[in-house]
């Protein structure tokens, strides 16, 4: 089974988190989840895939971790 979220390169030489279910890039708080490295984008995509398969976490807590990873929660 294919993961819902994955890191893909975009035309501006950055990497974004792509949602395979909707066929669109992931946007959080009106910001495109785009990163300078494939490793950073893949880390967030893996987190989103993992959190979707284990729904015991609260949605707000999941995004707080993602915010910290990209530096928005400071």
How would the blueprint of this fold be written?
Layout: E1 5-9, E2 15-19, E3 24-25, E4 27-28, E5 31-32, E6 34-35, H1 38-53, H2 59-70
Antiparallel strand pairs: 1-2, 2-3, 2-6, 4-5
Structural overview:
The chain is an alpha+beta fold and 74 residues long. The protein has one domain. It is 38% helix and 24% strand. It is built from two helices and six strands; from the N terminus they run E-E-E-E-E-E-H-H. It has helices at 38-53, 59-70, and strands at residues 5-9, 15-19, 24-25, 27-28, 31-32, 34-35. The strands form two sheets. Strands 1, 2, 3 and 6 form a four-stranded antiparallel beta sheet that branches. A hairpin with a 4-residue loop joins strand 2 and strand 3. Helix 1 packs antiparallel against helix 2. The chain is globular, with a radius of gyration of 12 Å. The mean pLDDT is 80.
How do you describe this structure in short?
This protein has 74 residues and is an alpha+beta fold. It has helices spanning 38-53, 59-70, and strands at residues 5-9, 15-19, 24-25, 27-28, 31-32, 34-35.
